[in-house]
Design brief:
By secondary structure, the protein is α/β, with parallel strands linked by helices. It has one domain. It contains 5 helices and 11 strands. β10 and β11 form a beta hairpin. The longest helix has 22 residues. The N terminus is likely disordered.
């Protein structure tokens, strides 16, 4: 059952779209759970006092250097999602086909200072990329070659926090920070960009899973669903994410 305070921050169309994505593709953990992820405290439960939140993911992440200087200069705080920074070019609404590049995983340590192995990095990149592809292919065509009317998405995971439980029984919440840049595949014109960091709530965490990346994957599913919603809003002529 979703927290009413969370649903009040989303309009009905967004909520139904998240459920439509979930029902159509049957994602393992359900994209509808991502409704709770964008508001870092809205879904807090009684066990929040003993849940360890990585502080560096509870704030607007610093620029990693992954995006172009032009993209960073245009980012503005999102009016819809706390901590997110977004730029949108109205021309992005014209694109129906996308190249989704392999996701770059930048950190070599987690937000709590634990080493990221090469296997961890590969898994993070694959999980993030396929979350985006699965969400976008509902309404858009995913291609692998540049062309007219094709946009390219560059994505990076800039921070990550493992999920799990300490020997003392403290729930360690997981999450991730990421950046995306969207450009015309032929001209390189900047069409959109965003940076964000999210930590799952105690009520949605998969901390007891044997997969330490489970919470980060929930965040990726959430971002992917929101990315699809963003493009859909632009296609309807809704400018909700900031300045040109």
């Amino acid at each position: 059952m979703h927290n009413p305070s969370t649903l009040s921050r989303l309009n009905q169309n967004q909520y139904m779209e998240l459920h439509r994505i979930k029902n159509r593709f049957g994602l393992r953990r359900g994209l509808a759970l991502g409704v709770c992820l964008s508001l870092l405290t809205a879904c807090a439960s009684d066990d929040a006092a003993v849940a360890d939140r990585p502080a560096s993911l509870d704030q607007t992440p610093p620029s990693s250097g992954f995006l172009s200087e032009s993209a960073y200069a245009r980012l503005r705080p999102s009016p819809l999602h706390k901590g997110a920074r977004v730029y949108e070019n109205p021309r992005l609404a014209q694109y129906r086909s996308f190249i989704v590049d392999s996701v770059k995983v930048i950190p070599d340590r987690t937000a709590r200072g634990r080493p990221l192995t090469p296997v961890d990095s590969v898994n993070l990149g694959v999980k993030a990329r396929f979350a985006v592809i699965d969400a976008l292919k509902i309404n858009y065509t995913i291609v692998d070659k540049p062309g007219k009317g094709v946009a390219r998405m560059r994505l990076a995971v800039t921070k990550v926090a493992f999920s799990g439980t300490t020997p003392a029984g403290v729930m360690e919440l997981g999450g991730a920070a990421g950046e995306v840049e969207i450009v015309d595949s032929l001209t390189g014109e900047l069409l959109g960009a965003a940076t964000e960091a999210d930590v799952v709530s105690p009520s949605q965490s998969a901390a007891e899973s044997i997969d330490k990346l489970a919470d980060a994957e929930l965040v990726f599913d959430h971002w992917a669903a929101r990315l699809n919603l963003w493009l859909q809003r632009l296609a309807r002529g809704e400018r909700t994410y900031g300045t040109k």
